Task: inverse folding
C-alpha cells in the first residue's frame, strides 16, 4: 500500500496542472480503513484501553510514561488527580485515580 501511495504521489507531482489531484490517495486510504473496519472480531485500541481499570495512586500528581520500557512508552505526562473522576493520559489513555486514606 505504501509503495502504491508513493507512486500516486509521484504521478500527481509530474502532472502539468498546478493543482494536485488527491482523490486517488483518499480513495486508497478509504479502502484501507474499510478493510480494517470489516474485521469485527478484533477490538479497537480504545476498547482495549478502556478495559484496563483505573490505576490507584497515593499522591496528587502522577507521571505517566505509557510503559515501564522507555522504548515502548511516550513522553512523560504529569497528571493532576485533584478531581473526583479518573484523570486520563492524553498519550496512551490510561486512567488514574487518587487513593484516599481515611
Result:
Amino acid at each position: 500500500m505504501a509503495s502504491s501511495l508513493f507512486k500516486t504521489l509521484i504521478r500527481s507531482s509530474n502532472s502539468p496542472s498546478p493543482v494536485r489531484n488527491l482523490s486517488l490517495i483518499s480513495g486508497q486510504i478509504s479502502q484501507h480503513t474499510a478493510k480494517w473496519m470489516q474485521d469485527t472480531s478484533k477490538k479497537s485500541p480504545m476498547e482495549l484501553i478502556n478495559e484496563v481499570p483505573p490505576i490507584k495512586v497515593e499522591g496528587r500528581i502522577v507521571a505517566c510514561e505509557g510503559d515501564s520500557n522507555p522504548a515502548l512508552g511516550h513522553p512523560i505526562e504529569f497528571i493532576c488527580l485533584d478531581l473526583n473522576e479518573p484523570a486520563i493520559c492524553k498519550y496512551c489513555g490510561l486512567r488514574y485515580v487518587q487513593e484516599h486514606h481515611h
